[in-house]
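User: I'll paste a sequence; please echo it back and then give the predicted structure.

Assistant: Echoing your sequence first, then the prediction.
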Amino acid sequence: MKKLGSSIRRSVAALTLPFVMSACMTWQQQDVASLPDVIVRDQPDKVRLRTRSEGEFELENPRISGDTISGLSGSRRVVGVPLADVVGASLRQIKVASVLVIGGLVVALIVAVATWVSVNSLGSSGFGLP
């Protein structure tokens, strides 16, 4: 029976994790002049750019090479943009307070489900109340 409770806890965690992480992320505006330094220092997984010519889009795994920022576009092809063309930039940031609150709620949910499963399985095994 221990295996069933463990399986349910893993399933609940796997189903809620994507929602938890997406709720805990926000875009923080970045000064365009310091963007190259920030990308080299922090190595963010995504950057949202606003350019004069292409509008707004996101790049995954951004890198700085000379006067160009490059990365993978939504269509998974490598895109390079001159830094002079960038008029706005945002980096994804984790909201720590949200992580703590939602993480606590997920733990409470897992404990509640595991308790419910344990109580119900004891009743059907002959050890619980009739």
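The chain has a mean pLDDT of 80. The first strand starts at residue 25 and ends at 30.
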